[in-house]
From TrEMBL:
One Pfam family here: ATE_C
Domain N-end aminoacyl transferase N-terminal: 36-108
Enzyme type, top EC level: transferase
Organism of origin: Handroanthus impetiginosus
GO cellular component, one term: cytoplasm
Annotated spans, Disordered: 1-28, 534-574
Protein name as it appears in the record: Arginyl-tRNA--protein transferase
Function: Involved in the post-translational conjugation of arginine to the N-terminal aspartate or glutamate of a protein. This arginylation is required for degradation of the protein via the ubiquitin pathway.
Keywords: Acyltransferase, Transferase, Ubl conjugation pathway
Reactions performed catalytically: an N-terminal L-alpha-aminoacyl-[protein] + L-arginyl-tRNA(Arg) = an N-terminal L-arginyl-L-aminoacyl-[protein] + tRNA(Arg) + H(+)
Family: Belongs to the R-transferase family.
Length: 635
């Protein structure tokens, strides 16, 4: 195989391969089994086991076939987990774009972006939310800091009643009510206070002024029940009564009385949020003020508030997309699609993202590491065609930029292949985390597939990379429905709703064994009772990890290229393999391309034995068909 220079040239200067003609060739070097530490379960040992290929050049058709066999690329390195042996089995997950229907939470991301562009949503830099790859939670603002003062708490609450801000307000109000309860009842151990949004249909049941009722808390009932259970401790009850200002000989505290007391303590809290607080039948209710002024938070110097007038480039199809006109809008969003190449502005954003969100050290976020991971690509670019076989942007590796008024706020990295858009990575400006850019970019990529299927009918799917059921960071991927998982043995696609109960019981499952369930058969509950594995504990997410809210499309599917390959174990494993026909394996020897059957006589018996063991291993992991089409490089 050619050296690093050739890989670099392939990743940056290859532009050949027409839309209808020859799309180039794939040249790979098999490095065998690799063991490394796992970034998902953090076991500490070299428990992550995969098979690796270094790639010189790779056609989009061959890469499509490889990812449909469980492969994934990081730069010019391809890897495939050994599913039965690795600590965290990784299942390829995909979604048919035309069948996708967003959840309410995913739809909020689009609405939130539109409100931001309209100038109706502005958030202070200090109050930004952490973006996520999993579900919807995990804000990180001053309101959650017990040492934060009243001013910081006031600034952290968004008084708008839009759904996008409900979760943040509920968490803030719950936390503050809980502090008030703990302050009043230091000697009583109580459950955490919680505030819930009141559905319109239930508002009259809990409030005497139902029109303005927004949130309610039933903590008073829990306090009353706790006091009743501990009534035998008279001194404790008297202490509670004294703290609450009650006479010692008063009757037992009722939920109604406790709610009234807590509501009086919460008046200042309500004022800071633009809400009024009243007790009603044991509930602590939060009402919106009749003429409440919307609390607007500002983004500061990072966003231009005036409309940006940017010239359109009508000659570059599929390269730039603009949202909104200057009239009536404060901000302009442009989505620019370009072929993978090094861009210093992108690198600067990537560095900021890795340092602040992933807590990487500066020494590990270099230009060279960035290029290896997200710029270098072995894919041979395929130019667009007029026959509908290739979309207007072509096939290959791309970066999609999200630019607001000339400022780059996010970059999505993905491959566009004959059947799919394969998402690889997303990095974004931490100052704009409140926009849920992980969700927003995923929705845009799914929309892109749907739109371009008109130009290229074969382009139907959105691939989200790997899904690891035992890793909580990965759960966000299953939220894009209806999704499918790839069977690790027969490479058939199985619906996620069928796979989930199986993966709940065991990390590695041959999903195609249960394909009959698609016909409505009942699930055999005892099918996995034998030889069950203990489920791995969920990963504790770091406070600033990307996988808190949106994110999470920013999954790091990379291979540590510094790890040594376990070649001895790899060769030994071939003794357990069934013999495969190696006659037509395509071998590359310098510039020559020969079938193994025409080359085997050039090796002595010992060399043949070693080479054939490697070729059997290689043929098994890439498949017989690809072994005949891709070039297995011998140097």
């Amino acid at each position: 195989m050619a050296g690093k220079k050739t890989r670099s040239e392939a990743s940056t200067s290859r532009g050949g391969g027409g839309g209808n003609g020859d799309r180039g060739e794939s040249v790979v070097m098999d490095v065998g089994r690799r063991k490394s530490t796992c970034g998902y379960c953090r076991s500490g040992g070299r428990t992550s086991i995969s098979h690796g290929l270094w790639v010189d050049t790779l056609t989009v058709d061959h890469y499509q076939a490889l990812i449909d066999r469980g492969w994934r690329r990081s730069g010019c390195f391809l890897y495939k987990p050994e599913m039965e042996k690795t600590c965290c089995p990784s299942y390829t997950i995909r979604l048919k774009a035309s069948d996708f229907f967003p959840t309410k939470e995913q739809s909020r991301a689009s609405k939130r972006m539109q409100r931001f562009l309209d100038g109706k949503l502005e958030v202070r830099k200090s109050d930004k939310l952490i973006d996520e790859p999993s579900n919807s939670g995990g804000s990180c603002n001053a309101a959650h800091d017990q040492n934060a003062g009243p001013a910081a708490m006031e600034c952290s609450v968004v008084a708008s009643e839009d759904k996008e801000n409900d979760d943040q307000r509920i968490r803030f109000l719950s936390g503050q009510i809980d502090k008030i309860v703990q302050l009043c009842l230091k000697s009583v151990e109580l459950p955490k206070a919680s505030v819930k949004k009141v559905p319109p249909a239930k508002r009259k049941l809990q409030a005497d002024i139902s029109e303005d009722l927004i949130y309610t808390s039933s903590i008073a009932f829990q306090i009353a029940a706790k006091i009743k259970r501990t009534k035998k401790n008279i001194e404790n009850e008297k202490s509670v009564q004294r703290v609450l200002g009650e006479k010692e000989d008063s009757e037992e505290l009722s939920p109604k009385r406790i709610a009234e007391i807590l509501a009086s303590y919460s008046k200042q809290l309500g004022d800071s949020c633009g809400l009024s607080v009243r007790a009603c039948n044991g509930h602590i209710n939060f009402y919106s003020a009749a003429e409440q002024a919307q609390l607007v938070e500002k983004t500061g110097r990072h966003v231009i508030t005036k409309p940006s007038h940017v010239e359109s480039d009508s000659n570059k199809k599929c390269s730039k997309k603009k949202y909104g006109e200057p009239q009536g809008q404060k901000r302009r969003l442009e989505i620019r699609l370009k072929k993978s190449c090094f861009d210093y502005e992108e690198y600067s954003l990537y560095r900021k993202y890795q340092l602040q969100v992933h807590n990487d050290t500066p020494a590990h976020v270099t230009e060279s590491s960035y290029k290896r991971f997200l710029v270098d690509t072995p894919l041979v670019y395929v130019s667009p065609s007029d026959d509908g076989a290739v979309p207007p942007c072509g096939f290959g590796s791309f970066h999609q930029q999200y630019v607001v008024d000339g400022k780059l706020i996010a970059v999505g990295v993905f491959d566009i292949l004959p059947k799919c858009l394969s998402s690889k990575y997303l990095f974004w400006d931490p100052d704009f985390a409140f926009l849920s850019l992980g969700k927003y970019s995923a929705l845009e990529e799914i929309r892109w597939v749907s739109q371009n299927q008109v130009h290229c009918p074969s382009l139907q799917y959105y691939y989200l990379g790997y899904y690891i059921h035992s890793c909580s960071k990965m759960r966000y991927k299953a939220a894009y429905r209806p999704s499918e998982l790839l069977c690790p043995l027969r490479y058939q696609w199985v619906r996620y709703d069928i796979a989930k109960p199986l993966l709940d019981r065991r990390k590695y499952v041959v999903l195609s064994d249960f394909a009959a369930l698609q016909n409505g058969d009942s699930f055999p509950l005892n099918v996995l009772d034998n030889d069950m594995e203990e489920e791995q504990n969920s990963i504790q997410e770091e406070p600033n990890d990307v996988s808190t809210n949106d994110d999470e499309m920013a999954e790091l599917d990379s291979e540590d290229s510094d790890d040594e390959s376990d070649s001895d174990a790899s060769v030994a494993a071939t003794t357990e393999m069934e013999d495969v026909d190696l006659s037509n394996v395509l071998i590359g020897l310098k510039e020559a391309r020969l079938r193994y059957k025409d080359l085997r006589h050039a090796f002595d018996s010992n060399q043949r034995k070693v080479l054939e063991s490697h070729l059997q291993r290689y043929t098994r992991v890439v498949g017989s068909e690809l072994s005949r089409e891709m070039v297995y490089s011998l140097g």
